What we know:
Layout: H1 33-48, E1 53-55, E2 65-71, E3 77-88, E4 97-98, E5 101-104, E6 107-113, E7 116-117, E8 119-125, E9 131-137, H2 138-151, H3 162-175, E10 199-200
Amino acid sequence: MSTLPTNGSVLPITRWGEEPMHHVNKPVTEFGEELHQLVADMVATMNAAEGVGLAANQVGVDLQLFVFDCPDKDGNRHQGVVCNPKLELPEGKDRKLDEGEEGCLSLPGAFTKCARPDWARVTGVDENNNPVSYEGTGLLARCLQHETDHTQGTVFGDRLSRKYRKRLFAEAEELAPDYPADWPVSPMLNAEEHSDEGLNA
């Protein structure tokens, strides 16, 4: 299991509708101190927001990069850093959908069901430009798909029907006063508990 850095600073989380959330992000081409600091800051921000994953565009950085710290279907913890991720999903008879709960730190507080394949593999490189590969089931599979989507400018609301998307935005609007504009730099006013089954990334 990777050891994520612990020396980062918490950054405000970028919300849906803001840049650079909704276009394909730029590939990571430079690996050095600046990238290492960004990774550390992303990990600190993910932890402060009590998420299981966070992409660079969720802290306003236009790069194909995400960090994660997430359990798989069996409860085994996986963590890592992925730059320039490539996603592999099952096809044909091997493709089975999981209709679990999903949320996004860039639309804080709101959750809804979102059908995704129950297995996924992501390959790429880490912050040192070393090859990495992660695969899993359950929440981990959902996390790998959710974060790779972010690097391609897709939020999970894009994958919902109009009815479910409308409900999601209504819930987020209702909870918006609990999340300051600089959240999670400033803590939530009213922390709410959500099911451990749901993704928050």
